[in-house]
From TrEMBL:
InterPro entries reported for this sequence: AAA+_ATPase, ABC_transporter-like_ATP-bd, ABC_transporter-like_CS, ACT-like_dom_sf, MetN_ABC, MetN_ABC_transporter-like, NIL_domain, P-loop_NTPase
Name of the protein in its database record: D-methionine transport system ATP-binding protein
PANTHER family recorded: AMINO ACID IMPORT ATP-BINDING PROTEIN, METHIONINE IMPORT ATP-BINDING PROTEIN METN
SMART domains per record: AAA (SM00382), NIL (SM00930)
Coiled coil: none
Protein task: Part of the ABC transporter FtsEX involved in cellular division. Has ATPase activity.
Organism in which the protein naturally occurs: Kineococcus rhizosphaerae
Cellular component annotations (GO), alphabetically ordered: plasma membrane
Keywords on record: Amino-acid transport, ATP-binding, Cell membrane, Membrane, Nucleotide-binding, Translocase, Transport
An MF annotation (GO) of this entry: ATP hydrolysis activity
GO-annotated biological processes: amino acid transport
Complexes and interactors: Homodimer. Forms a membrane-associated complex with FtsX.
Domain annotation ABC transporter: ranges: 5-245
Membership in a protein family: Belongs to the ABC transporter superfamily.
Length: 340
């Protein structure tokens, strides 16, 4: 695979009105392979939107280089930039459709700007509307559509000029969970059937889980962790990623929940990481049984990421040899953390 996007040591600072400087993106290096779906996550203010604006050349980096499809966006003239931007599709949280144009008019707009002849425009528009399942709404206006339909129009419009790259900035954040799933499954088709590389900016863990292969975690402008979605979500390495994953997955007790659990359960509280290893539950049970430890399940959650099991179970452990039980778990490669 070759890299469609290559960021090298990219920083972007803004001068604030009070004279201070904020580094919205701080020394980020990142490659996105052709054909992959990468999610960029992080709390509000982490620098995600600025990163996207650097990718479509709406912002120029303070330093570093931004290569998209082999072109260094930082070195292009205004005219060349316009051409480069037409090869990058973009969809937004608020859809950004033209209210005064019909669905077909919205989708055809980028083709019109690109100077495509009317007959070809009509053909391509119909093809795109068919792809997103809205051919029958071609003559409707955006205000007559649901949120999910509007985003499908947004996707059709973003794909009109056949861009190899689609950037999605919080594209499902304004949608309900069911509609989010619909839009994400359409984006998955955009990736798998049309071969479009997708970068998704989101603060929604579920969106990442449903669509991305890799995930990058941003904090304070820095890219603090990047890896396979399963690896990062099931075993985040950095404190920033751990915080984010914990707050989004709810399978480990929060500080408040722990206070309550402790009140109800005087034994030692231990959280065991659940992975998709075969026979895991049996090995956990054996470690408890062999050491005469009583294990009461008091909290937890198990779900799937990319069709692999992941989660955490919190037990109250009592008995004379709880330490031996923990040793036995850990000796078997099972990740067990005492909740303190
Ligand atoms: N044009 C600008 N001028 C000044 N500061 C900016 C500008 N754009 C972004 N910032 C600052 O840069 C930091 C990162 O902002 P950014 O919008 O990229 O974060 P984000 O992760 O996308 O957050 P959100 O999800 O809230 O949009 C913030 O501190 C923000 O205030």
């Amino acid at each position: 695979m070759t890299a469609l996007i290559s960021l090298t040591d990219v920083s972007k600072s803004f001068d604030r009105r009070d004279g201070s400087t904020v580094t919205a993106v701080d020394a980020v290096s990142l490659e996105v392979e052709t054909g992959e779906v990468l999610a960029v996550i992080g709390y509000s203010g982490a620098g995600k939107s600025t990163l996207v604006r650097l990718l479509n050349a709406l912002e120029k980096p303070t330093s570093g280089s931004v290569l998209v499809a082999g072109q260094d966006l930082t070195r292009l003239s205004e005219g060349e930039l316009r051409a480069a931007r037409s090869k990058i599709g973009m969809i937004f949280q608020q859809f950004n459709l033209f209210r005064s144009r019909t669905v077909a008019g919205n989708v055809a707009y980028p083709l019109k700007v690109a100077g495509v002849a009317k007959a070809e425009r009509d053909r391509r528009t119909a093809e795109l509307l068919d792809f997103v399942g809205l051919l029958d709404r071609a003559h409707s206006y955006p205000e007559q559509l649901s949120g999910g339909q509007k985003q499908r129009v947004g996707i059709a419009r973003a794909l009109a000029t056949n861009p190899p790259l689609l950037l999605c900035d919080e594209a499902t954040s304004a949608l309900d969970p069911e509609t989010t799933t619909e839009v994400l499954s359409l984006l998955r088709r955009v990736n798998s059937e049309l071969g479009v590389t997708i970068v998704v900016i989101t603060h929604e863990m579920d969106a990442v889980r449903q669509i991305a292969e890799r995930v990058a975690v941003m904090e304070n402008g820095r890219l603090v962790e990047i890896g396979d979605v399963y690896d990062v979500f099931s075993d985040p390495q950095t404190p920033a990623a751990q915080r984010f994953v914990r707050s989004a997955t709810h399978d480990r007790p929060s500080a408040d929940t722990l206070v309550r659990l402790r009140h109800q359960h005087p034994g030692r509280l231990v959280s065991v990481r659940i992975t998709d290893e075969a026979g895991l539950q049996q090995r956990i049970d054996t470690a408890f049984r062999d050491t005469g430890t009583t294990a009461e399940l008091v909290y937890g959650g198990v779900s799937e990421i990319r069709e692999r099991r992941t989660g955490s179970l919190t037990y109250e452990l009592t008995g004379p040899s709880v330490d031996a039980a923990l040793d036995a778990l850990r000796a078997g490669g099972i990740h067990a953390t005492e909740e303190v």
